[in-house]
Amino acid sequence: MSFFDNIFGGKQGENQLKSFWKPIQSEQDLEKAIAMSFEKKIAIFKHSTSCFISKTVLKNFEKEIEQAEEFGADLYFLDLLAHRNISNKIAEDLAIRHESPQLIVIENGKAVNNASHQDITLSQILS
Fold it and tell me: What InterPro entries is this protein classified in (predicted)?
């Protein structure tokens, strides 16, 4: 691993999701997540695995989650490069402009909050 990879979080372990994430890898996964939003608040984190900013925001958000005692939502993770079609469906179905990175909070099948880039924080879920 190079010096810059050590500082900025290179590719090592990139495909390993933290245990609190539920991956969205198909339209069926997305449908299940949206259905869950009728029982409990959910949040979808849309991440570009090739973008330094997205990697940094993801790391910071994961640190917040790990330090939180409770945040009251199921967390879903979408790899934009692998599943751009699903990201497009989210944007269309929830009437939210696509951004990356992006956190979308959903309750009762509707987006109730969303943020992108450095605006992504745990407070988006808690509010």
Answer: BrxC
Which DSSP helix (H) or strand (E) runs through 47?
strand 42-47
Domains of the chain: 19-126 (3.40.30.10)
Q: How far is CA 123 from CA 53, 63, 79, 109, 114, in A?
A: 19, 13, 22, 20, 11
- Gap between the Cα atoms of 89 and 62, Å rounded: 25
**22-44 residue pLDDT tens:** 999 999 999 999 999 999 999 99
Q: What is this structure's pTM?
A: 0.87
Separation between Cα atoms, residue 105 and residue 75, nearest integer Å: 9
For 55-67, what is each residue's pLDDT tens digit? 999 999 999 999 9
